[in-house]
Amino acid sequence: MTFYQTCLGGELTFQTVEDVPDEYQWPDTLNRMIMQTTLIKESFTLKASDLSYENTLVKGNAVTFMLNCATHEEVKSVMTKLLTGGVVIQDLNRTSDNAWLTSLMDRYGHYWTIFCHADGD
After folding, report:
1. pTM of the model
2. Domain count of the chain?
3. In this structure, what CATH number is given to the domain that contains residue 83?
């Protein structure tokens, strides 16, 4: 998430398992582990967690991020930063409904779809 913060900006916070309300039961061995992170910027909030019960996380049941940017320039900027060590899946192009859209896989193997409604550039 610190990598995503450098790409997207915003304020990053971490919540450990021991900070979770008591109504959620987790083994004591997990107390110091991070439950979730939250990245907040003016235009979005991105929450993430990879904490799971033993043997439940397998490649393929992870998430794909979709980020709706305000401008074409913001799409290009975020795309460039996320591509450090990643690969383009779909080149940045205008869609049939005149939006800008790209897809990529970042250095951690996470998929991103980044888009914005055309803003004249």
Report:
1. 0.72
2. 2
3. 3.10.180.10
